[in-house]
Design goal:
Blueprint (H helix, E strand, L loop, with lengths): L5 E9 L9 E11 L5 E11 L8 H7 L3 H4 L5 H9 L7 E4 L2 H7 L2 H4 L4 E3 H8 L8 H8 L15 H19 L1 H8 L23 H6 L6 H14 L16
Parallel strand pairs: 1-4, 4-5
Antiparallel strand pairs: 1-2, 2-3
Helix pairs in contact: 6-8, 7-8
């Protein structure tokens, strides 16, 4: 019998970042499942498929993932394989990706059967705020997850190796707080542990002054705004910045 709970990690390589103008050229996946002993572990071998993006792959993008036009010219279209990858049997309870907002742009609710997503980037901000950075690969070498086979997670920026590495982050997150909390955090903007720029760059948000904090409340970056609002709520009794309470802000 398959496990009762499975989450599929997905990674896409594309021709660019705009789903209206760009296409998928590779998809990779790796499952994480709840075992009989109550621990989440990697499940199955995972896999990858090249996809015909329906347009040329720009050289600047080829320089990232090294997928060439001739590699994908005979590959299937994304709309022909997306449902098979995103909604296989047995049903997955959620999908996951590092910086999942990117994958979600190319995966419609119809293709994913309306599944909720877990963003391991957003969850890493909450669970491992001491990390020097929060990219998939920095987390890999900073954390050194148990069981990760070094060569199987290479080369970076290819769909299966990236999904494989992300799956280890997801496994450890699930064993720490469970899927419901990860889904809830993923539905919100990212909660940044440190100020990204300006005179207070590198400081924790609870270390900066009121005037500096106020300047971030209208920032163009939604993650910065959300973090500043959350810190303001904490200062007004709304809970700790790393575990914010949901409430309306009265500015």
């Amino acid at each position: 019998m398959p496990p009762s709970q499975i989450i599929r990690v997905v990674d896409l390589e594309t021709t660019g970042a705009n789903p209206m103008a760009d296409g998928v050229c590779e998809v990779g996946w790796q499952d994480v499942a709840l075992g009989a002993e109550g621990e989440w572990e990697l499940y199955g071998d995972g896999g990858a498929r090249l996809i015909n993006p329906g347009r040329p792959i720009p050289p600047i993008t080829q320089a990232v993932h090294h997928i060439l036009d001739e590699h994908v010219m005979d590959a299937p279209w994304w709309h022909d394989v997306a449902r098979q990858v995103l909604d296989p049997y047995p049903k997955r309870i959620a999908l996951a990706a590092h910086r999942a907002d990117f994958e979600m742009k190319f995966c419609s609710p119809a293709q994913s059967a309306g599944k909720e997503w877990i963003c391991t980037w957003k969850c890493a901000l909450r669970l491992w705020p001491e990390s020097p950075s929060f990219s998939n690969q920095v987390l890999r070498y900073w954390r050194r997850p148990a069981g990760l086979e070094h060569d199987r997670g290479l080369p970076a920026h290819r769909a299966f190796p990236d999904a494989y590495v992300t799956a280890f982050h997801l496994r450890d997150m699930l064993n720490e707080v469970g899927p419901d909390q990860l889904i809830a955090w993923s539905a919100e903007p990212g909660l940044l542990p440190r100020v990204r720029y300006g005179p207070d760059r590198g400081k924790a948000w609870d270390e900066i002054g009121e005037d500096s904090l106020a300047s971030f409340l209208t920032d163009r970056d939604i993650d910065v705004r959300f973090t500043a609002e959350t810190e303001l709520a904490r200062r007004r009794g709304g809970g700790e910045v790393k575990r914010p309470a949901r409430q309306d802000l009265l500015l």
